[in-house]
Amino acid sequence: MKRLAVLLPLLLAACAAQPPRAAAPAEPEPPKTPALTYAETNLNATLWAQGTVEHDMSYRGIYAQATRQIAVALKQKDWDALPKNERKKPARGLKPAVIVDVDETVLDNSPYQARLIRDGKEFDEFSWDQWCREQRALPTPGALEFAKAAALKGVTVFYLTNRAQHLNEATLANLRSAGFPVADKENVFLGLGTVVEGCEANGSDKGCRRELIGRRYRVLAMVGDQLGDFIDVDNNTVAARAEATRPYEGWFGERWFMLPNPTYGSWDGAVLGNQRSADAPTKHQIRRDALRTD
Q1: Are strands 138-139 and 189-190 parallel, antiparallel or unpaired?
Q2: CB atoms within 10 A of CB 191
Q3: Domains, the chain, ranges and CATH?
Q4: What's the pLDDT at 18?
Q5: Which residues of the chain are modeled with pLDDT < 70?
Q6: Cα–Cα dist 89/107, whole Å
Q7: How far apart are CA 147 and CA 144, in angstroms?
Q8: Helical (H) or strand (E) element with 129
Q9: pLDDT for res 99
């Protein structure tokens, strides 16, 4: 017992001298990908659109093919480029026309995109209105040659745009100053808000305005940079857009001429699940999640 009494204080002192056991290290959190600003997201796309050979030759090649197809279409009296549900009367016997979108189709607004990048801003109606009123947008490569070639063949060129109505005069002035043919005796400029009797438009859809043109004209070709320039899609999802084009796959490059536009468009809204008002980190993550890696 005497030995135990001597050893017990020594054991207690030894235990007290032991350092506390360290906790197991926590699993490191995966690094977070920083959300890109609108300017950073659009930088490469805008640089590509501003005068790279790849951009310019893509546009020129598509417009050259569209010009060749006008000659083919004129010889075939039943030829028509309107979506089938928008053709309300037979095309045979009607005057010929072509339909072109305006922004990034016949007019180049890449300087506006560049300003947003320079200033670290996103698209807004005020700055867009200011740009449109400057009337400084130049023709996209090949667009002027296409429009003039159509007009020389007696084909009416219709400009179908979703610019707001209060920009109609500024846009027409820009088109004229750039050299585009604008018929005097026909309303060839159909902006957003154009009233079409007997047809109710869904938001900014262009179907009613295309139908209006088709009441008096047979359409030889349509040129645009968005799917909505050719056909209305009720539900702007990736799957619905693909489904809507299937009946018309053979028309692209023959009657419909799609120009590349990686800077903006309804395609991005579809990828985002139409959550355009979401904050930057949310939109950035949605876009990343949509990438295919195999």
Answers
A1: unpaired
A2: 19
A3: 36-284 (3.40.50.1000)
A4: 54
A5: 1-39
A6: 32
A7: 5
A8: helix 125-134
A9: 98
